[in-house]
Design brief:
By secondary structure, the protein is an alpha/beta fold. The chain has 17 helices and 20 strands. The strands form four sheets. Strands 7-8-6-9-10-11 form a six-stranded parallel β-sheet, covered by helices on one side. The protein has a six-stranded mixed β-sheet with strand order 15-16-20-17-18-19, with helices on both faces. A five-stranded parallel β-sheet has the order 3-2-1-4-5, with helices on both faces. Strand 18, helix 15 and strand 19 form a beta-alpha-beta unit. Pathway: Cell wall biogenesis; peptidoglycan biosynthesis.
């Protein structure tokens, strides 16, 4: 069997290693450059690779192709493969049949990283031998090749879900759905929603689907479509007999048929309404996985949040600097601005994925005193907000952006990097953007 891997990053190299171990004839092809450390791993494992090109003769003879999530379906090589009827799948689909471990799949437009990390923390503290993979951490396929975990917590993007055929998580979570990546879905929101719900398409009556009952897109889909899985809702807006909700004494209550969990919201390590939801989803998973309640409570109080997600960097002259570089869409930035309690200088901008900034308008009026646009093309942001805030400045360097924000900010203010956009115009990725922000703040 010939396995061709498109993309020589973490998921690609991991898939190649697992494929090789399972006796496939493996070839890795990357249209860009492959990082040195990955080239070394491929060479050590005697796996042939190419970079900066796709040689058709070496690719179109595949039996199966694993495509990295970053490669769009529109790319010429993917179109050719599909025309030839060659199966193009994601890493998750390829690796899942090679493990007996329980998998927990978490998707959503926002909150999925925090929910994934929190779930992993709860299960690990509860003594389970658990792996963390998907969109985060080490490649799932690589771990399947090397480790024997009893369970995996997988953060799954819509792109990874587009590439599944038979994969099913035992427990699936959809944290929320808001317009994101619409450029990859022909600007059709319903296609993006359908993509998220692929997470439940193969689930059976013995599996679980945990969903946000306050989310309009989720509610609409469930009304018009069905899943065999047992649905467990959570809500911060209404009290639920079954599932997760908040009672009048401000406790989280999670009620799963005779199995009830309660904890005061103010004991949670993570702040903000959206994090109450993330905690409900993760706690529901921990209960289904039979983790002791005492352990769950303890773990929810000592959890450290995700890097680049509302991460407090430093306080300088009583101005708090916050790195929310992972906010690559409007909805994520909405959460960030919503959780600000002081006047805010907002650093925003990058590659716009068809963003509609209207929903941020009330929050910007209420909380934002100055805007620093950090991007190659800031036209849309400038037109939208120049008459709404006192100061709006454009820049194309992080160091300059932080210096300007520092000048605008006064004692008691917050400087928030929450770009609402992808980072590829000026940075390698959102991590690079967040690290540059932290360095620039440290230099002040």
């Amino acid at each position: 069997m010939r396995l061709v891997v498109l993309g020589g990053g973490e998921s690609g190299v991991g898939t190649a290693i697992l494929g090789k171990k399972k006796g496939y004839d493996v070839f890795v092809s990357d249209f860009g450059k492959i990082k040195e450390n990955y080239k070394e791993v491929l060479s050590i494992n005697q796996i042939p690779w190419e970079e900066k090109q796709h040689t058709e003769d070496l690719i179109l003879n595949a039996d199966v192709v694993m495509k990295s999530p970053g490669i769009p379906d529109k790319s010429p090589i993917v179109k050719q493969l599909r025309e030839k009827g060659i199966s193009v799948i994601s890493e998750i689909e390829f690796a899942a049949p090679f493990t007996d471990a329980i998998t927990i799949g978490i998707t959503g437009s926002n909150g999925k990283t925090t929910t994934t990390l929190l779930t992993y923390h709860l299960l690990k503290q509860g003594g389970l031998n658990v792996g963390l993979a998907g969109n985060i951490g080490k490649s799932f396929a690589w771990q399947v090749a090397e480790n024997k975990h009893e369970a995996y917590v997988l953060e799954l993007s819509s792109f990874q879900l587009d590439g599944i055929i038979n994969y099913k998580p035992h427990i699936a979570v959809i944290t929320n759905i808001s317009p994101d990546h619409l450029d990859r879905y022909n600007y059709d929101y319903s296609l993006y929603i359908a993509s998220k719900f692929r997470i439940t398409m193969n689930q059976t009556e013995n599996d679980f689907l945990i969903v946000d009952a306050d989310d309009e897109a989720i509610g609409h889909w469930l009304k018009n479509n069905s899943t065999k899985a047992q649905i467990i809702p959570f809500s911060v807006a209404k009290e639920l007999e079954f599932g997760g909700s908040i009672d009048k004494d401000n406790n989280i209550n999670i009620n799963l048929n005779q199995d009830n969990f309660t904890m005061a919201i103010n004991k949670l390590a993570l702040e903000g309404k959206h994090n109450v939801k993330n905690a409900m989803a993760a706690t529901t998973i921990a209960q289904l996985m039979k983790i002791r309640k005492e352990t769950i409570r303890e773990s929810l109080t000592n959890f450290q949040g995700a890097e680049h997600r509302l991460e407090k960097v430093l306080k300088i002259q009583n101005v708090q600097y916050i790195n929310d570089s992972k906010a690559t869409n409007v909805n994520a930035t909405f959460f960030a601005l919503d959780s600000m309690t002081t006047p805010t200088v907002w650093i925003v901008g990058g590659v716009d994925k068809g963003n509609d900034y209207d929903e941020l308008m009330p929050l910007v009026r209420e909380k934002v005193k100055g805007i620093v646009c950090l991007g190659v093309d800031n036209k849309k942001l400038v037109e939208k907000f120049e008459n709404v805030v006192e100061v709006l400045v454009e820049t194309t360097s992080m160091e300059e952006a932080v210096k300007i924000a520092n000048k605008i900010a006064e004692k008691g203010d917050t400087v928030l990097l929450s770009p609402a956009c992808a980072s590829f115009d000026l940075f390698e990725n959102y991590e690079d953007r967040g690290r540059q922000f932290k360095l620039a703040v440290q230099k002040l």
